[in-house]
Design brief:
Number of strands: 11
Pfam families: DUF1045
Helix content: 25-40%
CATH topology: Cyclic Phosphodiesterase, Chain: A
Number of domains: 1
InterPro entries: DUF1045
Shape: globular
Largest sheet: 4 strands, antiparallel
Protein name: Phosphonate metabolism protein
Order of helices and strands: EHEEHEHEEEHHHEHEEE
Amino acid sequence: MFERYAVFYTCPTDSDLARFAAQWLGWDSASGAKTPRFTTAGLDVAEITQNPHKYGFHGTIKAPFRLAEGMRQQDLEAGFDAVCSTVQIAPLPQLHLASLGRFLALVPKGDTNLLQGLAAQVVQDLDVFRAPLSAAEIERRAPHRLTPQQRGYLDKWGYPHVLDAFRFHMTLTDRLDKPTAAQASAILEQALTGIAMPAQIDALTLMGQAADGQFHQIRRHRINGS
């Protein structure tokens, strides 16, 4: 049994983007294995991807959570399958590299209302499986830095960036200083040239976090209408 669970969007494993990202982050969550690292002169990719390395390449739909008392992984899997049968495919418009605060990620550009709706449904429908946050988990979210709305979401849903505060992104680096971010951005832009980006979310992935902190794919499920 895993220590925490999450619902992510992950790319098909046979896609060029998934293969590149696994090398960039050094972890393939689908196979649960480390991968040969992308190397480039003058930049230690492993050094700038320590946090996203644990998760693998993904977009968060429902943030990591502990199972509620009395719930088993098989219960969560059944709930996940049920949600996947009811949510609708959502477009993922113009995925592109951008700076979010101090880290780099792929983000959509354009109307993301359907994507936001998909994420909201998953967050709400699966919340019965989530254990309440501990005091330590709340503190790690730096609640003093959250808006009143975000703090309310943290208390109710276990994560501050949900519902209308949700912003889809697929993280590629840790927080970086400006020179390193500029260098990494240039390298990523070149490496991503010619790689097809996903145009829609037509599947969701149930993930589990092992004791060593690494996330593993439990199952990837195509969603309603796909």
